[in-house]
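Meet my pick.
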Amino acid sequence: MTWLITGGAGYIGGHVVAETLNSGREVVVLDDLSTGIRSRVPELVPFEQVSLQDRNAVCDVFSRYPITGVLHLAAKKQVGESMIRPDHYWQENVGGLINLLEAMSMHHVTNFVFSSSAAVYGEPNISHGELLRETATCNPINTYGATKLMGEWLSNGYVAIDGLTVAALRYFNVAGAGQQHLGDTFALNLVPIVLTALDKNEAPTIFGNDYPTPDGTCIRDYVHVQDLALAHVAAMTFVEKSDPGFESINVGTGIGSSVSQVIQAIAQAKGIDISPSVSSRRAGDPPALAADVTKAKELLAWQSRYDLTDIVTSAVAAWEHNKNSISN
């Protein structure tokens, strides 16, 4: 089996490529390198620097490789940016997906794993401590989440048109590092944002401490990127063996941690004290999200192995490794 992995030079993508290769599958990586890093992709893996906005170039990739499945990671993903540049996010995340699905249709590729997000849920009407099931109403409150929900709808539509078998992985907050050189190097997620601030001798910022949560800061379900990579491989196996259809599947730990708790875990991993500053809430941030992962256990035979301490410790080690590599 040969899988095309879009966004395979990204932080998540690099881990997914590594585990896909470990599963015995062949891999082709497509990435425009707008945020990806070429060195994350092993040298022997075919690499295509192509934008999903270039429909002809995408189709050409399918013409040159015996692709049997597609794992679609490539997307713009900053919640705040999506609220001020909604047109850009619709074009990149939805327009690009349409080009990809059309290329799959033309070349009769029916196995599809879609990188979705817990952002599709928006602000679910659940009580504190209640876990989100896939049956919860999807009502995204930011453009990023809306583009991901549209991606689910589009791929589901191709089930009837082309007989696709789709697993849409709704993952929660991804952090950590499975291999140090694959660590997250961009300040787009909470842990690297905090580490970037500390490197500049600045106080990290908490956006809002007046949420209806125990310590007033947002609660999220943090999942180790290595666990997530293995979930993708399990999803590949699932779609390869399943009849045409669509399944949305949460990927998380089932345990919520607040922003303040994550910052404290970083302080412990670095052996320092951290006194964050507090700013106003960001538009589009729901108070609390944590996953019910029963479906992932049942359909994918998958569950997370790492906790918040593991996640933060590995993230800090990778950050220091990559920082030292750059300086040297």
Notes: Residues 86-106 form the longest helix (21 residues). The chain has two domains: 2-175+223-251, 180-220+254-327. The mean pLDDT is 94. The radius of gyration is 19 Å.
